[in-house]
């Protein structure tokens, strides 16, 4: 089976690509799946984590399938050709090293504008990666020191969620990229488990005001409320997503969550909920930080 990676792989295209690939594999049950990179011209952090989780998921759930990769003619012999810059970017960001076990070009090195692709182990906590990410963000994002502490706590809870109850066979992954021309950093975290919406349905049917939770977007929204948790572990206090909203407010950034058939986007203090055209297996969280804003020196409000 040939799987062509789309020309652009981002938040908008990841849902369809993810679902379509899994549906095709489920129907045809191929012996070989070949991921083809000929069309790829641009990939964002959301596309990076989605593609990584997709490959890991296939490997975990269909061990009988052999996964292979093909590249454009001339790629390996002409590494400086600008037509192949998206593949070079993947190589520099450790993608091929993580999924294939080795770089395509031995000289590939992580770029200053990226926080390299990291797999999140389903059985152990990734505190070292969180610490590294916080230090990397401190060099680029205008937040007070105290806010970075809260961000570390929020990421810890999100990673705990992946380990404890996402149900993802391969854990998940994370990746961040700095876009200097846009004054923006996108940090994406994703897993291929049951998803926030499905997990929330096992515990809740109404919100704190007694309103029925109907759509997947409703359940995602409720998960961002203060102290809302499925409480599968004492480590999680339901603070992760809610804390992120406060940090986003301080930074004037944005947050987007995709899970199952729902989407939530948050910026400028407002939430936009919608049903998505397709199905995202698991959960994708994209945090967009502004690098050209600085918090005013005022009383820190991120307290619980």
Automatic annotation (TrEMBL):
It comes from the Bacteria. InterPro entries: HATPase_C_sf. SUPFAM superfamilies: ATPase domain of HSP90 chaperone/DNA topoisomerase II/histidine kinase. This is Histidine kinase/HSP90-like ATPase domain-containing protein.
């Amino acid at each position: 089976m040939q799987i062509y990676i789309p020309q652009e792989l981002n938040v908008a295209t990841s849902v369809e690509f993810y679902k379509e690939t899994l549906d095709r594999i489920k129907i045809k049950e191929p012996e070989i799946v070949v991921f083809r990179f000929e069309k790829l011209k641009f990939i964002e952090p959301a596309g990076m984590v989605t593609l990584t989780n997709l490959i890991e998921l296939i490997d975990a759930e269909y061990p009988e399938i052999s996964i292979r990769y093909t590249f454009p003619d001339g790629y390996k012999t002409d590494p400086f050709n600008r037509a192949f810059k998206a593949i070079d970017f993947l190589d520099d960001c450790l993608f091929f090293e993580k999924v294939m076990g080795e770089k395509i070009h031995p000289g590939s090195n992580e770029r200053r504008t990226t926080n390299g692709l990291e797999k999140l182990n389903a059985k152990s906590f990734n505190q070292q990666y969180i610490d590294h990410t916080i230090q990397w963000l401190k060099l680029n994002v205008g937040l007070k020191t105290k806010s970075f502490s809260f961000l570390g706590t929020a990421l810890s809870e999100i990673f705990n969620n992946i380990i404890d109850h996402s149900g993802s066979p391969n854990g998940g992954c994370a990746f961040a990229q700095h876009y200097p021309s846009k004054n923006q950093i996108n940090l994406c975290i994703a897993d291929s488990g049951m998803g926030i919406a499905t997990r929330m349905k096992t515990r809740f049917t109404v919100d704190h005001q007694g309103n029925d939770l109907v759509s997947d977007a409703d359940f995602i929204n409720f998960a961002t409320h203060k102290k809302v948790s499925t409480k599968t572990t004492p480590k999680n206090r339901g603070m992760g997503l809610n804390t992120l909203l406060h940090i986003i407010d301080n930074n004037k950034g944005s947050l987007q969550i995709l899970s199952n058939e729902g989407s939530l986007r948050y910026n400028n203090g407002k939430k936009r909920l919608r049903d998505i055209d397709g199905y995202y297996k698991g959960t994708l969280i994209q945090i967009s930080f502004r690098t050209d804003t600085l918090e005013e020196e005022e009383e820190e409000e991120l307290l619980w």
